[in-house]
Amino acid sequence: MKDSILSQISLLNEEEKSRLYLIIERFLNDNEVDIVNEQVKEKVAVANNCPHCESTKTRKNGRQYGVQRFVCNNCKKNFRASTGSVTAHLKKKELLKAYIPNMLAGYSLEKCALLTGISKQTAFDWRHKILSALGKYQKSQMLSGICESDDVFIEFSEKGNQNLDRKSRKRGKSIFVKKKRGINDDKVAILISCDRKGNKHLQVATRGRISAEDINTILKDKLEPKTVLCTDGHRSFEAFAKKNKLEHQTIKVSAKEYVKKGIYHVQHVNQTAQDLKKWLQSFNGVSTKYLQNYLNWYALKSIIEENEVKKTIVMILTSFSAWYEFKNIINLAYIN
Ligand SMILES: [Zn+2]
C-alpha cells in the first residue's frame, strides 16, 4: 500500500506535486492548530489584560457555548480569548487556517477566496486583519550594529481601495493630516531601516518630505545603544543622529564613496527599497491607508518564509489588538 502511494507520487509532474503539497499542508493545519485553544493558552500565559480597561486583574469565568470566558475584576466586564484578535466576530473561524497559507503563498485575492470558499470582500478583510496582527511583531523588532536607513516615496493613492462603498466615518488617527505644502504632496514617504542581521523596519512616515522629527518619532526607540547609522547624508538624518548622539556614517552613492568606506554602505537599504517597490506593484495599486499593513508583511516576509506554517498561524492568532487596529484603518479618513 505504502509503496504504491510513493511510486504514484514519484510519477506526478511539478504542478500536481505542488497541488498535493497544498492538500497535505491544509490537512496538517486542520488537525494541528486549535484556534480557540491557542488563544486561551496565550491569554492565560501572558499578562491577561482586560480589552476594555486594560486592567490585569482578570480571571477565568466559566464557559459559554463551549468557549472560555474571562471577567475583569476592575470594570466587571466579560470577555473571551478571541476579543480583539483576528478571530473576533468571525463566523467561519476554522476557514482562517486554510486561508492563511494561501495568503502567505502570495496568491491573488480571487484565488485565495476561491481556494478558501469565501467572498472576495471577506478575503480582503481577512488579509488586512492578519496584516494588522503582524504589526505587533514589526513594532517589537529592534535594530542594532550597523543600521542603514533611507526614505522612499510612493504615490499617494485612494485607488485600489476595496471598501469605497463603505461609508468612511471620520474616526481613528489619520497620518494624512500632516500634509505639507509645496513638496511632493502627492507622495507618501516611507522610512526604511535594516541592520546586518537581516532585521527590517518599514514605517509610513508622512506625506511629502521627511523631517528629522518624523525620523525621531519612528526610530528613537528602535535602535539599540551603540548602533551606527548609515545614510546618504540627508540633513534630516544628520539632525536625528546628532540629537540622539549616534555615530553617523554618510555615504553619497553618486560620489562612489562606498568604495572608501568599506563596511559602511547603504547597499542593503537601497536594494530593499527597489525590491519593495517591485513587490508592491504585484498588488496592482495599494491604497495609502492600507500601505502600513503591506509594510508589516514585507518586513516579516523572510521570517514567515523560514517559519513553519503552524508557527506563523499561532503568531497571527495571538495578537489581541489586531481587530481594533483593523477597525481603525477601515475608519481612517483621507484628509486633504
Ligand atoms: Zn476591565
Structure, explained:
By secondary structure, the protein is an alpha/beta fold. Among the domains are: about 35-80, no CATH class; about 140-300, Nucleotidyltransferase, domain 5 (2-Layer Sandwich). Helices cover about 45% and strands about 15% of the residues. The strands form 2 sheets. Strands 6-5-4-7-8 form a 5-stranded mixed beta sheet, with helices on both faces. It has a 3-stranded antiparallel beta sheet with strand order 1-2-3, with no helix packed on it. Residues about 170 have low confidence and may be disordered. The structure holds zinc ion. Zinc ion binds near residues 52, 53, 55 and 72.
The unreliable regions are: 168-172
CATH architecture heading of the domain at 140-300 = 2-Layer Sandwich
Strand order of the largest sheet: 6-5-4-7-8
Q: Which distinct ligands sit in these coordinates?
A: zinc ion
Cα Rg: 23 Å
Per DSSP, the total helix count is 13
User: Within the CATH hierarchy, at the fold level, what is the topology of the domain at 140-300?
Assistant: Nucleotidyltransferase, domain 5
CATH C-level class of the domain at 140-300 is: Alpha Beta
Strand content: 15-25%
Write down how many β-strands occur, each being a DSSP E stretch of 2 or more residues: 8
List the secondary-structure elements in sequence, H or E: HHHEEEHHHEEEHEHEHHHHH
Distance between the termini: 67 Å
Helix/strand structural class: alpha/beta
What is the makeup of the main sheet?
5 strands, mixed
Helix content: 40-55%
Coarse shape:
globular
Mean pLDDT: 83
